[in-house]
Amino acid sequence: MKRTDRRSDCPTNFALQAFGDSWSLLVVRDLMFKGKRSFVEFAASDEHIATNILTDRLFTLRRSGIIRRDGTGRATRYSLTAKGVDLLPLMIEMIVWAARHDGRSAAPGAFVRRATRARAELLAEMRARLVLEHAAR
Q1: Buried residues in 52-66 as b, exposed as e (16+ CB within 10 A)
Q2: Which of 12, 37, 93, 137 could be stapled to 77 by a disulfide with Cβ–Cβ 3.0 to 4.6 Å?
Q3: pLDDT tens digit string along 21-30?
């Protein structure tokens, strides 16, 4: 049997091949938590991603079915697909983990407390918002 471009059939490998670099996860973060939608907004993030890398990551996330692109040129807007919204529990868990282990974490305390004490409620609320945003596009 001929292998495709997958390194292995390991679930961790599948996930990492879909979104497995820090830049891709930061784009997902910006879409999910910060309401960013355009190339210019992503490029203006605190991490200062180079435009060539940003272009590549947006393409990779689209190819993986995690984000979609609407419009062209300066009117281009990005949003999470249903597959991208499914990353919400993972993203929240990473925020809680970082808040617990990084003394300089910028995670808002109220968000971390809610994610810790009422995670199911927070997930449902955020998922509903993200699904509505996806449906509106």
Answers
A1: eebeebbebbeebeb
A2: 37
A3: 889 999 999 9
Which helix (H) or strand (E) segment holds residue 113: the answer is helix 109-117
Q: What distance lies between CA 132 and its chain's CA centroid?
A: 16
pTM: predicted TM-score of the whole model, two decimal places: 0.87
Enumerate the domain spans of the chain.
Answer: 12-136
Alpha-carbon gap, residue 83 to 130, rounded angstroms: 11
The answer to whether 8 touches 14, Cβ cutoff 8 Å, is no
Q: Report which of 71, 58, 50 is spatially closest to residue 28, judged by C-alpha positions.
A: 58
Looking at domain 12-136, its CATH class is mainly alpha
17's CB contacts (< 8 A; 6+ apart) are 6, 7, 64
Distance CA 84, CA 74 (A): 23
